[in-house]
Design brief:
Blueprint: H1 17-27, H2 29-49, H3 60-71, H4 75-88, H5 91-105, H6 121-158, E1 163-168, E2 171-177, H7 178-197, E3 202-203, H8 213-218, H9 224-234, E4 238-239, H10 250-278, E5 282-284, H11 303-326, H12 336-341, H13 344-363, E6 365-367, H14 369-377, H15 384-396, H16 405-413, H17 420-428, H18 434-442, H19 452-459
Parallel strand pairs: 3-4
Antiparallel strand pairs: 1-2, 5-6
Helix pairs in contact: 1-2, 1-6, 1-13, 2-3, 2-5, 2-6, 4-5, 6-7, 6-13, 7-10, 7-19, 10-11, 11-13, 15-16
Length: 460
Amino acid sequence: MTAFPPQPLSPLDGRYRSVVSPLAEYLSEAGLNRVRVEVEIEWIITLTNNSLFGTTPLSQDDKARLRALYLTFGQAEIDWLAEREAVTRHDVKAVEYLVRDRLEQLGLAALAELTHFGATSEDINSLAYALTVKRAVAEVWLPALRAVVEKLRTLALEHADAALLSRTHGQPATPTTVGKELGVFVWRLERVVRQIEGSEYLGKFSGATGTWSAHLAAAPHVAWPNIARGFVESLGLAFNPLTTQIESHDWQIELYDRAKHAGGILHNLATDVWAYISLGYFAQIPVAGATGSSTMPHKINPIRFENAEANLEIAGGLFTTLAQTLVTSRLQRDLTDSSTQRNIGVALGHSLVALDNLLRGLDEISLSRDALAADLDANWEVLGEAVQTTVRAEIVAGRSQISDPYALLKELTRGRRVGAAELAEFVEGLDIGDEAKKRLLALTPATYTGLAEQLTRTYL
């Protein structure tokens, strides 16, 4: 068998690379190492800012030269780390050696022993993961989610008045509007977006078992917890003062549960739009040159929504695994979380592919108001609810002697189609007041949408 040239195993690095590449800036191995360097450098700056061990605060020029080590982090550093990690068999230690090497090149070798000072690998990792995830969510994933929400909002407002035959349990039911149904998804998603936007990203910096033991051994009179808090918060993170060797990951669990929740809502959206396309309510706009079926030239398949479903299911499974695994760490530390966290980008990547497909899919459909109208006109029996409820009100008001309005309408409409003329004849014969009868005779399935349009315009 002929061997292929090197190929990406994951579709995220192959078929979907163009969609997810922005995430790689943060959540790839290189992205993580760049931020590890950032944490190491900023810790050196913090120690010197506090004039510890006889140091003095660095000049602005020296700080800029140090920060350039992570701001210009690139292929040379990636290759250097790969070679060193092959020897150390420890990724964070390789980063420490990189920083020491670059300090020497900058003529700042006197600071070398402040590199990784008092830190365990998880001090660096907890901050690096918090920063990379926070930035990936804020800069890439959340904007993609918001774009879908805004597209839905636009469609909902555009079609706020488009009467739609509801289907509860898959059966014709009280009409609504297309805008109101899409608006429900906007309302649901906005709530979860707000929760995600309010997420905390925590970090720790308290040594091998969370006790600052080594720090105190080196400098017993220094208020290390205060310095650590200031350092962590200077990075834009929240400080976790009480941990084992690792930061407990609870913020990650909360975030991934919310991301999964958003994905579940989006999955519901994808299946509903797919169903509306199947019913003919939405027509798919042909894309020049595209093929729907290898044998049936007429077909335009709703592949955007099907692709979104699949990727949301994969992402949801990974988010669940992340949350279930990261909640536990044996005693003061085990390595399970290390392997697990390397898949954060995979989970967000599949979610991002789904968001891209949903946005494209929503751009490639157009509402068929004729199909909506025809479906409504074929289901006048859905007005049975309006009639029996009005009759009940007339009975209470003393304007009707009907004994069981629900049973009366059930006999007329259950399991059978009722036309406009038949329903009008039925209403004409009802023992109700003239005003109520007039209202019912003026009603059509297309106008029996209650406050649907008003709700959409009010809340979106």
